[in-house]
Description:
Elements: H1 39-43, H2 48-52, E1 70-72, E2 75-77, E3 98-103, E4 115-120, H3 121-127, H4 137-150, E5 158-163, H5 166-177, E6 183-188, H6 195-200, E7 204-211, E8 214-215, H7 217-225, E9 236-239, H8 253-266, E10 269-273, H9 287-294, E11 301-306, E12 318-323, H10 324-337, H11 343-387, E13 401-405, H12 414-425, E14 430-431, E15 444-448, H13 457-475
Parallel strand pairs: 6-7, 6-9, 9-10, 10-11
Antiparallel strand pairs: 1-2, 3-4, 5-12, 7-8, 11-12, 13-15, 14-15
Helix pairs in contact: 3-11, 4-11, 5-10, 7-8, 8-9, 11-13, 12-13
Amino acid sequence: MQADTITEPPRPDGELNGHANGDAPSKSRVYDPKYFLSDRAKVAEIDGIRGLMAVEGPGVVSFVSYLPYELSGSQLTRQFPPLTARWPTQPHHIPFSSVTLTIKPPLVDATASPVPITIDGEDLDTALQYGPSAGLPKLRDWLEGLQSRVHKRGRGNWTISLGSGSQDLMFKGFMSLLNPGDPVLLETPLYAGALPALRQLDAELIEVDVDDQGLSPDNLERILSTWPEGKKRPRIIYTSPVGTNPSGCSAPRERKLAVLEVCKKYDVLIFEDDPYYYLAEQLIPSYFELETQVYPEGGHVLRFDSFSKLLSAGLRLGFATGPKEILHAIDVCTAGANLHTSSVSQAVVLALLQHWGLEGFLSHGHGVASLYAQRRAEFEAIAHKHLDGLATWVPPVAGMFLWVDMSPAGIKDSYDLIRHEALAKGVLGVPGMTFYPNGRKSPHVRLSFSIVDLVEDTELGFSRLADAIREKRKALGLE
Length: 479
């Protein structure tokens, strides 16, 4: 099956949406999200069997499917429109008749008892077969309702796609938006899991340093305003704006609006990786929510959410929200890579969400945020006890990390300290250089408080880290 040809708007200066490699962005143009797609994504389409699923329907005798009928009771009956292009096995051959889950109440409801719920019938049949690359329609609809409510965005020119965790979707997002060798703007320090796709693409990694409020619009403006003439301009910026891994920073509303204004000026799409969004006790307006205040048409933010921090990391389920054209390109990647995200995981999450309802999900998120806030307060108190005078950090309002800066103690390279003095004393953290795209030395160390024992191990660990810092100072001749 040949790939469809995508018709693009006129290119007044040789590039869709108004700027070629090194030209300044055009001030007047017709916006089309396809502008941000990579060359490959602009022409790639789902083909083969999955490409024919969309045209099966009433009145069409289909020989492309593995299964032209579905089982109803003890009889095989014809179904229109057929779901059969994704059903390679007769349903009565599948050795599962129902799945029963025992669902806990939302975390804030400590008095309620767990409740058993069952997935069976059509919902189970659907979960046990191949599914749409974008995800189960019922779950996507539920999540669209969530995004519409939480981010105050009416349903319209955006949609939802499911992935095997948000990192799977980010990987496919980068593949859909970047050509090999393209420059990409990266909030720095950044989540290291964003880097493998960029390195496969041999992308030019442009570091945009954060400050105490996260991604700095001033640093972003400085980089873009001094971009070399004639050099291909970056069209994407990656940021994780709430409880950032590793810095712990959270960008407030006004900061995000300032970043959006810079991105509008230079025609840059925001890649919003927000797995810790619900770990803030007070939800902070997202880029996805705020973008229509800067871009009335929307479509300039690609947002990634994860169930890993709220429900279960092992479910491997996340979802992307953004322009339909870009989400379609991600779905094409999914169709070619793994067909679709586990429908069983999707069905389990759907059953839970339907049982809890929207309010139950949001109250659970608040309960998880409160739990982490309590752990954070205890962890920080112990950190202050041992590290005051030796290190500083930005007190996080979300997430699960302290980004400890040891430069007040004269430490310039945390990697050397962690691998030698700290390890010898029996304490570990993640050296800061891990989170810098270009591997520069860093005086920081990332310390996670998500699961560490707060009674004994945290006290012992900070005591050992403080001793390691003092020992390093002596080795450096600073004491």
